[in-house]
Amino acid sequence: MDKILEGLVSSSHPLPLKRVIVKKVVESAEHWLDEAQCEAMFDLTTRLILEGQDPFQRQVGHQVLEAYARYHRPEFESFFNKTFVLGLLQQGYHSLDRKDVAILDYIHNGLKLIISCPSVLDLFSLLQVEVLRMVCERPEPQLCARLSDLLTDFVQCIPKGKLSITFCQQLVRTIGHFQCVSTQEKELREYVSQVTKVSNLLQNIWKAEPSTLLPSLQEVFASISSTDASFEPSVTLASLVQHIPLQMITVLIRSLTTDPNVKDASMTQALCRMIDWLSWPLAQHVDTWVIALLKGLAAVQKFTILIDVTLLKIELVFNRLWFPLVRPGALAVLSHMLLSFQHSPEAFHLIVPHVVNLVHSFKSDGLPSSTAFLVQLTELIHCMMYHYSGFPDLYEPILEAIKDFPKPSEEKIKLILSQSAWTSQSNSLASCLSRLSGKSETGKTGLINLGNTCYMNSVIQALFMATDFRRQVLSLNLNGCNSLMKKLQHLFAFLAHTQREAYAPRIFFEASRPPWFTPRSQQDCSEYLRFLLDRLHEEEKILKVQCSHKPSENLGCGETSLQEVASKAALLTDTPYASDSEKTLIEKMFGGKLQTHICCLNCRSTSQKVEAFTDLSLAFCPSSSMENLSFQDPVSSSNAQDGGVMQASVSGPLEEPVVNNPVTIVCDSVVNERTIGSLPDELRCTENISVPNESNKGLTNTDVSQKPGSESTPSVTDLLNYFLAPEILTDDNQYYCENCASLQNAEKTMQITEEPEYLILTLLRFSYDQKYHVRRKILDNVSLPLILELPVKRTTSLSSLSESWSIDIDFTDISENLAKKLKPSGTEEACCPKFVPYLLNSVVVHSGISSESGHYYSYARNITGTESSYQMCHHQSETLALPSSQSHFLGKDSPAAVIEQDLENKEISKWFLFNDSRVTFTSFQSVQKITSRFPKDTAYVLLYKKQNSTNSLSGNTASGLWVNGDPPLQKELMDAITKDNKLYLQEQELNARARALQAASASCSFRPNGFDDNDPPGSCGPTGGGGGGGFNTIGRLVF
């Protein structure tokens, strides 16, 4: 029969005839044959299967072999034995190589035919050894796929025990050697199918024997982390990722990133190759593992690897967005890489040139999936342009391309950025070893205490949180300058963009410290604030004069000493009233006007003068329950607040002393001789202290009893009303009337005629105790209204008045306001003042009982003039109508109290507590309750923001020049920040490595971030009150 079949298949008969005869041969398999005939038939059919010249011959071989093996099983079992199979696997078949897939297919079919025979067990044992040998020889994808088919059908052939681990490891290596040289779609699809079969085999083995999984993954990492230039592992390893249980991510990544045996070069190679896996079309969860590894490296602060890999692979990841199969994973990885790379715009700018083409392409195809993808992409792009504003030439084409897609809110952008940074807690693995010393969850940067510099830190943070002022400072073009404003701009830029948890403002401190401030000793924050604002104002004023006199010369903007500022500012004291365009930045932001009006009660002649101010110093209202207030001395208070510095002289034809008490004469005589710029020590009025007489004290106590709200906690509104109340100058406080040429009783009133953009209020908390001759702090609690309505009575004669910059309203006479009389003024104008609404922006708190000791910290929030709740506040404020004769003062029960309560709830999440290096979330309730909870902690300096004001800078956002709320930084600043951010990441990485080497003895303690309601501020100093620098330098390592 074998001869007949052999002659038939090689004959030239028609194919249909051949098929009929073959059918007869198959049917004859039922008849008895002797062993020799069966063996001859098995030998022939094996030869047809393995060496058949055409598909027909191979098909005939399969059909006949299957039929005869079924009916003659013992004979086939004897033929298909271990020796025969081993010969096929090791030597091949005649001319057929042993690695030919046909041999493996033949063995696969043979096993199916004798599966019920006892001898199959011997074959299984043989194949367990042979398949391990085969994978060690790195078979091609096709052969490996056929082997996977065999082992999937016959799991008994898979090596057992320790050999199973070896087999899996070798199979991983084999996959790592797969390559596909074809670019044809058919061949590529076949290649992907072959790889999928092999990866599925590994998955089945991992499930059956879990002990093989971890060694297999170690082998995967060994392959992709290899630095051997002669070997590049195949991207097909990506096919294994989808089979790794996601529950193992945390454990595996932590083990991997903390393994001291893994070198940086190997980790970099591994991460790069994992990112390359995004190209594999059918791989699932590759993006999840890539992002997990990126987070794991950030958690152990290996920033060098992250930087190198991001810059190397960001363009490749972006290019993968063009391919639909891998687009979702590529977008996830791209988003994480860009959003976490926050120390420099370098990575983002690598993909910027490619964005427009991608957007236009996907917009044109009109597919729903493309539109959904573009919405996600544009959100990412907006976040990056917000974070790295200042490149209009790069961003304007992108803005035009994505203008039709929704733009995320600023709050959402900030949240995304804060959660994505390498130094963000939310960006680290849940079980990472230690918390990073990066920015807190607030996204704000602290200021390192340089040694009792909390007075500066608290003021700087309050100014930084004054949004409009910050934006104006950052928008200034100060390249080449070395002025104090340039240093402030530098400091603001770092607070906004540094990756550090806290920044050390050493340069700014040295430049802005008043000369009489002793280094490393506690100072008064109010005094520092006034000096700082005046210095900034004087510098800008001098530069304007220089520019007007030397328009064609390069001013150089060199550093100006305090004495130079003073001498040049003296030239400007007699200048006429400045227009808005001529005002300095400090005048625009903090400058207001106060008109003092004195009427002689004898002849009814009047005098008045208008003075500029940057802050109002509010004395406490006297009451019978506060006897120590009778010793409140304005000059000593001034000394406690600002060292007795009067901020300017008052010039002009209408100038005259406001009152004639001895203290005023001493101070005003000095002030009239000098301008703020000189600020000599002799200006300090500490020794010129006068105590009011008992008659005044009695009048005050009697009068104050009539004041509303005196029986409860006073509010800032009460203190402001008291400040603006009419005062009767009598007895020793009489006014010298030039018309009468004698001392006369007089009435003095003060009115605010021009309100500032930011209203600074200083509470005079330091009084002079005559009995013990010391300054004492008034610890009384003061209620802080969220909304303050400032009565402003504008006049028409301001333009005709001359004035000089900025006298502090800490007048000696108003500190003698113990003698004020709340009586109607006969000279009061009939018109009512306009109420200008202000919202509380920041509060500087002093903790302690003396101005020379204690600690400062500040509460603050971002406020602009455009938020809806503030508009409501303004609308409500205009409806107030107080019927009493004192209608220009605010009562505590005004309708604003209702609005205040409403805003308190709306704005609760926007407050921050700045305590040197430490920045935490807090609430307005905490601000209100600070003194009741910590009696030594009292509000000292308040910053209120005027509402419904027009922000002159806001127009830039529409043009695309400002992508976020803050203006773009100058290149010089951006480069400095980028350089420092990279340095910081390197410091963190070195610190992490040092801690890893000293893990047994390392001890790093972190206070938890969060609400700070239960913690008193602590002491002030290099480490007290949150002033420690943390692990920002190598020298600060703690072991």
> Strand-residue fraction?
5-15%
Pairing-aware structural class of the strands and helices? Answer: alpha+beta
> Globular, elongated, flat, extended or rod-shaped: what is the shape?
elongated
How far apart the termini lie comes to: 89 Å
Low-confidence stretches: 425-437, 551-562, 571-576, 624-710, 797-830, 867-902, 904-908, 951-961, 1000-1019, 1021-1039
In angstroms, what is the radius of gyration?
42 Å
Protein model, in words:
This protein is of the alpha+beta class. Strands 5, 10, 13, 14, 15, 16, 17 and 18 form an eight-stranded mixed beta sheet that branches. The chain has a four-stranded antiparallel beta sheet with strand order 4-3-9-6, with no helix packed on it. Strands 1-2 form a two-stranded parallel ribbon. Strand 11 (766-769) and strand 12 form a beta hairpin. Helix 34 runs antiparallel to helix 35. The C terminus is likely disordered.
Give a short summary of the structure.
With 1039 residues, the protein is α+β, with helices and mostly antiparallel strands.
